[in-house]
TrEMBL record:
GO CC annotations, alphabetized: cytosol; protein-DNA complex
Residue ranges the UniProt entry marks as DNA-binding: 127-226
Organism expressing this protein natively: Streptomyces filamentosus NRRL 15998
Protein name as catalogued: Two-component system response regulator
PROSITE patterns: OMPR_PHOB, RESPONSE_REGULATORY
PANTHER family in the cross-refs: DNA-BINDING DUAL MASTER TRANSCRIPTIONAL REGULATOR RPAA, REGULATOR OF RPOS
InterPro entries, A to Z: CheY-like_superfamily (IPR011006), OmpR/PhoB-type_DNA-bd (IPR001867), Sig_transdc_resp-reg_receiver (IPR001789), WalR-like (IPR039420), WH-like_DNA-bd_sf (IPR036388)
UniProt keyword DNA-binding present: yes
Length: 227
């Protein structure tokens, strides 16, 4: 039973989402403020954080940054329509995905299960541990290290790196990555990919402006290498 911590200040939305997710088999704890949400994290120990972007007092972006500073907990943001600027900030802060409100419970449920679904990028035909320069990827242990130092990657960052590195030199469009990494089967927002790439580069590249591992091919997408 997936354990979900919902942080949402609107009591009607909070109660509706909580009830709907419980009916679909989730163990849900809810909080109305960012401060209460952070306090509930240690006690409840959720599998995923469902976080409203616009919270009173401590905003969802601030909560996201605090969580991401010490945890790889998957984070999905809830945002109102038209909050494009805040969505970008939230993605840059470390959120793995976002959902625009109002959203049907089945949509939220499907997105939660997609984020939590175990990665299968390294399941067949590839060595368990791969070394690229100073970057080491353990596909079985799902860990990444750089120059012998373990890296802390958010779930979306790890999934993206595993997917790209499974096919070095192959170029993936943003839509292909959205389908294969985020499991979005519709034409979704490419900013999810761009923000995740930027965060990943900040952790694995020596020179962000001259990336060695995750490279951009303008007008086409991203690829791993050349090395």
């Amino acid at each position: 039973m997936p354990r979900v911590l919902l942080v949402e200040d609107d009591p009607f939305v909070r109660e509706g989402v909580q009830l709907g997710l419980r009916r679909r088999g989730h163990d849900v704890r809810a909080a109305g403020t960012g401060e209460d949400g952070l306090a509930a994290l240690a006690e409840f120990r959720p599998d995923l954080l469902l976080l409203d972007l616009m919270l009173p007092g401590m905003t969802g972006v601030e909560v996201c940054r605090q969580v991401r500073a010490h945890s790889q907990l998957p984070i999905i943001m809830l945002t109102a329509r038209g909050d494009d600027f805040d969505v970008v900030i939230g993605l840059e802060a470390g959120a793995d995905d976002y959902i625009v409100k109002p959203a049907r419970t089945e949509v939220i449920d499907a997105r939660i299960r997609a984020v939590l679904r175990r990665m299968d990028d390294g399941s067949t035909g590839r060595p368990a541990i791969e070394v690229y320069g100073d970057l080491t990827i353990d596909r079985i242990g799902l860990t990444v290290s750089k120059a012998g130092r373990p890296l802390t990657l958010a779930p979306s960052e790890l999934r993206l790196l595993l997917h790209l590195s499974a096919a070095p030199e192959q170029v993936f469009s943003r839509q292909q990555l959205l389908e294969n990494v985020w499991e979005h089967t519709f034409h979704a927002d490419g900013r999810l990919v761009d923000a995740c790439v930027a965060r990943l580069r900040g952790k694995i590249e020596n020179e962000i402006g001259n990336p060695r591992y995750v490279q951009t091919l303008r007008g086409f997408g991203y690829r791993f290498g050349p090395l």
